[in-house]
Design goal:
The structure is a single chain. 8% of the residues are buried. It is built from 5 helices and no strands. With 140 residues, it is mainly α. The termini are far apart.
C-alpha cells in the first residue's frame, strides 16, 4: 500500500513539474511578459502571496502561513528563472512543439477529466439554447 501511495505521489510531482514547465513555455509562446498582469500564473502567485501576507498581519496563527509564503515566493523565483531559460530556447516558439506540448498536457488524466467535464457542460448549454430556438421558431 505504501508503495502505491509513494508511486502516486511521485506521479503527481512529475505532473506538477511538467505543468509548471509547460505553462512557462505556453506563456512564452503567447509572448506574455511574466511580470505583468497578462500572465495568469504569475499574477495568481502574486495574489496568493499578498493574501497570505495579509493573513499573517491580521492573525496570530502565522507559522503555517509564513511557510506557505516562503514556498510561494520560491515558486515565483523559479518561475521567473525558468521563463528566462525558456526565452533563450527559441525552439519552444515553433508551432509543432507548442502543439505537441498542448497534446501532452491534455493526456494527463486529471486534465483530461476536467476538459471532458467542461465539454459536457458546454454541450448541455448548447443543447439548451438549441431547444429554446426550436421553441421560439415553433411559436412564430
Amino acid at each position: 500500500m505504501d508503495e502505491q501511495v509513494d508511486k502516486s505521489i511521485d506521479t503527481l510531482n512529475e505532473q506538477q513539474q511538467f505543468l509548471f514547465e509547460a505553462s512557462i513555455k505556453l506563456v512564452r509562446f503567447l509572448r506574455i511578459n511574466p511580470r505583468k498582469q497578462t500572465d495568469p500564473f504569475f499574477s495568481g502567485l502574486a495574489r496568493m502571496i499578498d493574501e497570505e501576507q495579509y493573513i499573517c498581519r491580521s492573525y496570530d496563527l502565522v507559522n503555517f502561513n509564513q511557510q506557505l509564503i516562503r514556498k510561494l515566493k520560491q515558486l515565483q523565483r523559479e518561475y521567473e528563472q525558468q521563463f528566462i531559460r525558456t526565452v533563450q530556447n527559441e525552439e519552444n516558439q515553433i508551432l509543432p512543439h507548442v502543439y505537441k506540448l498542448i497534446t501532452s498536457v491534455n493526456e494527463i488524466l486529471m486534465i483530461k477529466t476536467q476538459i471532458d467535464a467542461i465539454k459536457k457542460y458546454q454541450e448541455g448549454i448548447l443543447k439548451l439554447h438549441e431547444n429554446k430556438i426550436e421553441q421560439n421558431e415553433a411559436y412564430v
